[in-house]
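Quick board copy: two proteins, each given as sequence then tokens.
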Amino acid sequence: MSLGLTALELARIQFAFTVSFHIIFPATSIGLACFLALLEWKWLRTQNPIYKDLFKYWIKIFAVAFAMGVVSGVVMAYQFGTNWSEFSRIAGSVTGPLLTYEVLSAFFLEAGFLGIMLFGWGRVGPKAHFFATLMVAIGTCISMFWILSSNSWMQTPQGFAIENGMIVPTDWWAIVFNPSFPYRFAHMGTAAFLVSSLLVVGTAGWHLLKGRRDELVKKSFSMGLWMVLLTSCLQVVIGDNHGLNTLEHQPTKLAAIEGHWETNHDHGMPLLLFALPDMENERNSVELGIPNLGSLILTHSMEGKVSGLKDFIPEDRPNVPIVFWSFRVMVGLGMLMVLMSCTALWLRKTGRLYESKRFHTFATLMGPTGYIALLAGWVTTEVGRQPWVVYGVLRTQEGLSHTVTADQVGLSLIIFVLVYTVVFGTGIYYMLKLIKSGPVHIDSIDHQPAGPGHFKTPLRPLSAVEASIDSTDSSDSNCKENPHD
């Protein structure tokens, strides 16, 4: 079952596979939780039923994403104990408490108020329900805080000492607020809001293409586009500052991102738009770039010096082609998001935002790009850190369990792939069905009896989603074009 690969290679593939599945669900729930809090606040302030109907629609998708995020997160702890037990033994005194803080401060907060948020509408007062929604939204952000702190410490470790081959914490303030943490927290948080806002925009754009012109779809489209405009432009600024931080603390990763082999001593570094990095011959076999622009962006000088990959021994370099191209996928999609936002502004001004089918097609296609950019950015971050699991301190090979074999990891990887395909494939299919159905006016549902003994009383978390996964799609009745349009 080793598939011709070593235990280290298989363990890395397994972790990459599971974390790639996991990251998309927390990113969705973080953004949607804050969106739901905004919708409920707008409803409390204006009493406009549009916001209440949108809340009751998007909370269904949030419930599915949250449930799958929790389930997929459990597997990460499993791998730390089996495939990466040496990493846990050596660095566990730092990473263990950080993850414990996440459970104590965030998970309990989310768990305590999630039930009220999902099932408390009409059972508790409006302000109490809004408070629960707000606590869940804050809880998701606190969870992201601790997870990003732990991961950022692995990227730029500070506040520790090495005693008897073990990493021992000496300054928790330096550990939590390590040099890359503020930039990575802002970058990931903005990415989560981008993911969810693009999901909202893509969903509304699809329904606009199908002919719907009701206020539910229009409001979703408008609110989502405003959020994409804000977060995509903000991400450009955050990304630039994050790049400067990476240049200072992880120069090898930065050199791989830029495809930069030779340190430029007497000329500016170009910004490569296209390249085919050749790690064996330590050069780019083909490249196309803009002269001096790389130095200008990274050093704010046309001839600023940037260390090349040849300044570092081959054993300390990451996989350059993967890092180079994953970064460009992320940035390229980010530029498309900015373009979509600017186009939306122009269409608003001309009064054609809800009538331009070409733009609706563009917006629908952009819906999943948030997830693609998120995964591309995560690949850039994690592959760019290699060959270190704790940058400059502990190599990935040294973190691997001594007793695990390639056959064991290969077998568990195959099992994970099969189980994930069934479980999360079903969950994603369910979310797509909910997206296809679209938001509807549901005032009549509020008048149905609820409470013990009534069929609307939820008995389990996914009861927040009333639709059956194999039910006949009735969205066609909601997609008829308004005769006045």
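And the next:
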Amino acid sequence: MVYTRKNQRNLTGAERKAFVNAVLALKRSGEYDEFVRTHIEFYVPDGDDGLRVAHMAPSFLPWHRQFLLEFERALQKINPRVTVPYWDWTRDNTPASSLWSEDFMGGNGRRGDFQVMTGPFAYAHGQWEVSVNVTEGRFLTRDLGRPKDPITLPTAADVSQALADPVYDMAPWNSTCRSGFRNRIEGWTTATGNARFRTHNRVHRWVSGAMLGAASVNDPVFWLHHAYVDSLWSRWQAAHRTAKRYLPEVAPPKGDPQHGQVAALHDPMPPWDIEPAALLDHSRIYRYA
């Protein structure tokens, strides 16, 4: 049966509570931290050697689609009615948005150490200890909008510009691509300062704190952010039905700097060994409201 992922602003109180409770149950079981470990392991920059599947590569979108599905299935083992909601950051774009309420994601971090003090994921409430990290911090942190170095969330115009690109991705298949839908959404540029980051990357920077870097899964808002990114990929697919739905179709050959570093259409993506080709259509699993 096809289920629906809803905009978080349209969740009922009961739906918000069910989602939070399922996430907390995953945390208590230790399974949530396994998702953090997976993201850390596969966050491979394009300056490193070896296969990149999660970031700075064409498989950024299908890899995270499968990652979301794995998380959602884990939640549904706890409560079959739970789905991952999405955060449309072009609309809910301030720290006053309902997303950050005490009964859902909790609020901003406090001054000084940026520790989140409100909501179900506050360390002080005893249910959310950051135990898998690339730093030694044990509590969830946020610095919404980064007042000392201000950054804004992406706009509807930014999204429209990305959606208008008719090509999925292009060589050199990494963070330096100047065009292609994948990198316009992932958000790498050659600019400097905050202009270096756009769309997906800019959202991570705006939330800041735990949302920066490989361990960003430690902030549960990660899932709502990536559900929206996934919905944008769905919109791009619907708008460009005659375009190649994933590139490259064939892996870069020997001698190409990207040989062995990117997943082609039918290359298995670790850790699940699922091909990007298997993730191009989610219509039999879920839809977006």
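Board note added afterward: The chain has a mean pLDDT of 96.
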